[in-house]
Prior knowledge:
- The chain is built from two helices and nine strands.
- By secondary structure, it is mainly beta.
- The strands form two sheets. It has a five-stranded antiparallel β-sheet with strand order 1-2-9-4-7, covered by helices on one side. The chain has a four-stranded antiparallel β-sheet with strand order 3-8-5-6.
- Strand 1 (about 15-20) and strand 2 (about 25-30) form a beta hairpin.
- The protein is globular.
Amino acid sequence: xxxxxxxxxxxxxxxxxxxxxxxxxxxxxxxxxxxxxxxxxxxxxxxxxxxxxxxxxxxxxxxxxxxxxxxxxxxxxxxxxxxxxxxxxxxxxxxxxxxxxxxxxxxxxx
Length: 110
């Protein structure tokens, strides 16, 4: 099975990684009509829509938001993001790890 980053890159989404003390940020530069694949996290995390309009599917709920906007994705909620317009979406996770593969193993629920 492909890792989340590989799936997003295959879909045309640019993924950038940023590290600071105790925090990891994953930035998704999303052309219109691309989707961050459905997944769950082990912990709550903050997401920021820096620009654009997206449709968030969170468990069985859907809602449209336009950036800039901030929201919390609760742990164990199946979620995905569909870019309606070109968008920049960021996920911020608390971790001291700096290896993306290790972080994904720690934060993504099976």
